[in-house]
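1st attempt posting a full record on here, be nice pls
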Amino acid sequence: MTEKTGETVRESGEFRCEKCGHTVSVGRGALMPLCPGCGFDTFGLRNPRFATTEQAADERSRTRET
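the predicted structure (as tokens):
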């Protein structure tokens, strides 16, 4: 999953810049910032903040319902 600068983040976690590798922590519902390392605008999810894949699936289900 990738996130772009200015878009609403769909899942909380640490995101890695696809250009320089800098990581940023962003919560679900926040706007994705520009990379503070290089100013690039595309990030990949590095470390989701869920203990299990079941918690991640539950979060995605709740997001679809709203």
